[in-house]
Amino acid sequence: MGISMMVITINTVAQVVLFTKQINKEQGYLFFAAPINGKQFIVAKIIEVIGVYLMIFIINILYLLIKFGLNNLFVQHGFTAIYGAFSYVTWIVVLLFFIAIVNSYIASTGLRVLAILALEVIGMPIYSTVISLIVYILPYINIVTEGGERYNIIEIAMNFAAIILLGVYCAKRIDNNLNIN
Fold it and tell me: For residue 52, which of 76, 97, 106, 16 has the smallest C-alpha distance?
């Protein structure tokens, strides 16, 4: 599992750097000379992120199968691994969206980094608090694993909807600024 985490970390850094270069002014001109729009670009990025992490996830599931076999422990760890992988892919996609949106508004690289850090450090806890309050008001619909872990379906659906809305906004910003700074 340690090697897997190293691969995930290196891959995350590589994807963020590549994505930033693709929407950067110098290399973005060539990239956006192709006949694609912002929605197609965002969908392609999401497919790329899911594809890469799906391969890593399959390797981890095979590792869990070898370690635990097909028993309750595998089911418990497998579901937790699925949720963890989904959460990590979601975080990567949101980070890439933030980078594209911030790059479309701010020209200075230093200010971009500070804005993205602020969104991650301050914005995400505020978002989580708002979602928690909404989920508290709505009825609970949970999936419960063999180990007693609970996953709220409404919270997952709301997070998914928020990511879609963020992606649509990101695509519009890319369409409006095909010459992103």
Answer: 16
Q: Residue 114 and residue 136: Cα distance in Å, rounded?
A: 32
Secondary element (H or E) of residue 76: helix 72-105
176 C-beta neighbours (distance < 10 Å), count? 10
- Residue pLDDT, tens place only, 102-157: 888 887 878 888 888 888 889 888 988 888 888 888 877 777 766 677 777 888 88
Q: Counting Cβ atoms within 10 Å, is residue 153 exposed (0-12), middle (13-18) or buried (19+)?
A: exposed
With a CB cutoff of 8 Å and minimum separation 6, the contacts of 36 are 44
Report how far apart the first and last C-alpha atoms of the chain are (Å, whole number). 39
pLDDT of residue 1 exceeding 60, the answer is: no
- Stated as kind and residue range, the H or E segment containing 169 is helix 153-176
pLDDT above 70 (res 5): yes
